[in-house]
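Just wondering, does anyone understand what follows?

——
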Amino acid sequence: MSAQQQLIAIDEISEENAPVIYVAGGLHQFIDAVKAEVEGEVPDLTTRKGRERIASLAAKVSKSKTAVEKPGRDYLRRLKEMPKVVEAELRDFVTAMDNLRDQVRQPLTDWQAAEDARVDRHNNAIAHLKLNAESLEGITAEDLADRIEKVEGVALGKQWEEFESEAARAKDDSLKVLRAALAARQQYEAEQAELGRLRREAEERAEQDRIRLAQEAAVELERQRVAQEQQAERDAAAKREQDLKDQAAAQEREAENQRLQLKLQAEQAERARVQAEADRVAAEQRAEQERQAAAQRAEHAAEQARIDERRRADAAAAEILRQQQARERDEAHRRSINRAALEAFIAGGMPEACAKQAVTLIAQRKIPNVAISY
């Protein structure tokens, strides 16, 4: 019990001294004081005055109880209301501080949003640049040339900011893929044109050979016919003097000879036709083999180009992931150091809100000659 509590009498209890009275063990002094007043007397119950004295002492105890209890109850009501007041005050304080924090951070928030939009704009432009070198299968040489012209027309410079080198690589890689695809496509189209030309020439030669052989066979047949007629006439003139039997036998032999000659001529013509057909088939087979070889070369070139582009795309994706992870590690490292600085300020006695603002200002280099080492 403090000296201040010992000096307070029951009738001196007030709102000002209630906090030091209504504490654990704080009311024992009043119990002791009232006991000292009422227990010091021994009234005589055999007399009316003695009995009235006892009743008076009991009334005095009740009065003292009321004198201590009433201000205590009033003080207790104030204590019960205090949490509501404190809660409302704290709620208003927290709301005001949150608004102030958001207001202070708003320039950084706006800058971060603009920065994210700027980075997205550059990344989208680079992705669009790379898209020109994708899905090249079946594209004509003319379309490939148009894509090359479009990519070559992409200007590099300060407008790309820190993404200029990446944009330059994307442009260079796209042009390499497109130019390789264009060369392969031009070679393929040239080979197809050459195969068509060779096929037409082979067909024309085969047709010419067929016509020539037919003409030669016809001429030979006519020559032989004329020669045979002349020979027949000579034989007939020589044999007219022979008797009828010899003449008939001679005529029969002559007819057989003519049949053999015609058969031989027909066989020669057939062999010539078969040879011409074999030459035509051989020419078509050579043309088909050349076409298949050209198609295989074009397919191999296109597949190699797709493999190279896939490798470059995988490498670019890995690099983007590595840079993102590095930025995340750096941000985590900075947050860790900022948190350590914040805890040091708080441990040194600074309020948390002030400590947060101090760390923020130092991190933003707004405090001269003071910096945080990351």
Q: What stands out?
A: The chain is about 80% helix and 0% strand.
